[in-house]
């Protein structure tokens, strides 16, 4: 059976998941080429900054909802069977406030906050919270079982799984997508996977102008909240958010945040940092059990990541650009982990369609 050379551009959660899925076909030779790799922290690399948890937010009829449905069983399986991947189960408490309807964060979390949500048969142990269980500022709430991923373990684990399947990982910066084949270890490739996230907006041959940053600022602390907590908004502006999640395996607790559309600023805003910590302690006093004060929080670091937003939502499509077949897989905004496997399998399906067009078949 003849071999097909495949280049995956990008080594975020989307590029690595896609490379891993493709590498299971014995007649695909996969090379991942990327400007950033697991271990790097950079404003152009969203994946390390994510919490990352699984809170379904896909709207009715959206691609995102289908991808979240497809992804949960795999994340659940990895959590259950593969502790070395750095995922653990954690109770997820979500609190709605009527006044957040229509705000940037309120729209993002609209489906999440419903008391009869579409994901009631997907996420285990979902129940409506009693009024006595809600923080005083909140009107509604539900709790369900979810996961929190330690991205500092999960991304290297994904890279390791790729290496085990003979994927070549290498550094490279592309200015145009047509350069991708020359980055393959064999010097040529028939299929290119574009997993460049936010930088798809600047990549020659694509330059998707509907892709833009959704800035997120976070703090990582040593304190333990006992459960994940999220509200539908805050009183500090329509684009400021409150979420708390404890990463698996000593990864600390990630506290956010904000969703600032169109903001490329890589620097931590110290005033926002103070508000982030204060809001977390207000909603989850068990973070600071001795004093109830922010000063009890032991900060590991503050950080900023840019979510790869896209006006039309996630793009998983194939396109012929010049002589090259490109499968796009980008635009995962604030939900790249919780849609990663569904996106990777969709990209795989498109890659197999290209092979079929060329009269070849894939071999598992
Ligand atoms: P990236 O991780 O940005 O990777 C893009 C890759 O492409 C990089 O390796 C980069 O170097 C490479 N690249 C780009 N251009 C080029 C080029 N020209 N040449 C070579 N290489 C190139 N999601 C969740 O599911 N749950 C969460 O709880 C969650 N929380 C988040 C919190 C914050 C603060 C942020 C910022 C995001 C959060 N997300 C969350 C969203 C998630 O992080 C993103 O959707 C996801 O990381 C996107 O992955 P990606 O691989 O598409 O992009």
Automatic annotation (TrEMBL):
Its cofactor is FAD. This is D-amino acid oxidase. It holds the Pfam family DAO. The keyword Ligase does not apply. D-dopa binds at residues 243, 307, 334. Residues 6-346 form the FAD dependent oxidoreductase domain. FAD binds at residue 196. GO terms for molecular function: D-amino-acid oxidase activity; FAD binding. The keyword Flavoprotein applies. Belongs to the DAMOX/DASOX family. One of its GO terms (biological process) is D-amino acid catabolic process. Gene3D superfamilies: D-Amino Acid Oxidase, subunit A, domain 2, NAD(P)-binding Rossmann-like Domain. It comes from Didymella exigua CBS 183.55. PROSITE patterns: DAO. GO terms for cellular component: cytoplasm. Keywords: FAD, Flavoprotein, Oxidoreductase.
